[in-house]
């Protein structure tokens, strides 16, 4: 449903919420190594999140990334909206062509009526689930859930 790029972004933001302390920045190399993600690609993702005010970024040898907001103020929806856009919540879940740019698709598509409520619930969950919720769960656990 969401792209791998978006999954990487979510994992990286959760990582920052769990590992960084107030006003501390963590370098992209450390984040990419610990999450086993490609560094240059992750760097571009993180810059996008910083540009959209979800992260702080400092360049240089002592630079890195940190959260720009309280992790309980960053929802999964915020990250998906920034990385993938909201079409993921609006596109036909099974890719039926009749739904594309067709204002009558609600009446014509037999799947739309059945999937509409699921889609609404999914948006609700993504809006309500915060990075802080994930971080709290990970911090309470004795298992490393990052990778």
Radius of gyration: 18 Å
Mean pLDDT: 87
Structural class: mainly alpha
Q: What separation lies between the terminal Cα atoms?
A: 20 Å
Q: Can you summarize the main beta sheet?
A: 2 strands, antiparallel
Number of strands: 2
Question: Could you give the order of strands across the largest sheet?
Answer: 1-2
**SSE string, helix = H, strand = E?**
HHHEEHHHHH
What spatial form do the alpha-carbon principal axes imply?
elongated
The residue ranges in which pLDDT falls below 50 over 5 or more consecutive positions are none
Number of DSSP helical runs: 8
Helix content: 40-55%
In words, what does this structure look like?
The chain is mainly α. It is 54% helix and 5% strand. The protein has helices spanning 4-19, 28-35, 39-51, 76-83, 87-90, 105-108, 112-128, 131-140, and strands at residues 55-58, 64-67. A two-stranded antiparallel ribbon has the order 1-2. Strand 1 (55-58) and strand 2 (64-67) form a beta hairpin. Helix 1 crosses helix 4. It is elongated and about 55 Å long. The mean pLDDT is 87.
